[in-house]
User: What shape does this take?
Amino acid sequence: MHTTSRRAALAGLGVAALLAVAAGVHAHDGPAPAIDALLGGSRVSIPLAELAARVPLADGQDFRVEELGRSESTSHHVAAIRTAEPLHRHDQHDLLVVLVRGHGTQRIGDETRPVGEGSVIFVPRGVPHAFTNAGPEPAVAYVVYAPPFDGKDRVQVAGGDAQRGKPSSAQRGEAERRSNEIAERSR
Assistant: This one.
């Protein structure tokens, strides 16, 4: 990727991160937190509270992603995860995730940490990662890829089978415990 294109992509990721920070400090008397972006020449404004309605999961469906739009350097998506995703990586794409609803654990590389609503997660290209939902409802996230996601750059990582499908009750309990720990520390 050319230096100029890489800078533009990183700037797009930075804008998404600032959106996430702004959502976390939402004033009750102001406008509701929203995605507000110029994508493909069109202004896109979506209240964060409405994102889940864009990715309803059917019975038995564990994961769904819908594209919201794209610019020259990024693509923007909303994702829902009922239980967990398999350990995987993206070799050609950096990834920024803003957890809009839910909580659980996020593995990035060899470390797994608790994440909750409002968390901003950055995964550089080539780094294995996986999210495990600890809540009773599907987790929902705003996701930005740089460069725009091609739908093909998702490589399953060997040894990631433990993250596939429904997590065990022990995994869900551990994710819940870690999530509660981080919530307590933030009070």
About this structure: The longest strand covers residues 63-70. The two ends are 42 Å apart (CA to CA).
